[in-house]
Amino acid sequence: MSMLAAALVVTIRVYDLYGLSPQVRQEALAMASEALDHAGVQAIIVDCSLRPAAIACTTSVAEGELVLRILRHPREGAHVLGEAVVGGANTIATIYAAAIADRSRRNGVPLAMIAGRVAAHEIGHLLIGTNVHATHGLMRPSWDLQRLDRGDWDFTSEDAATIRSRLSQRSEVLLAARAGS
Question: Looking at residue 161, what is its pLDDT?
Answer without folding.
Answer: 96
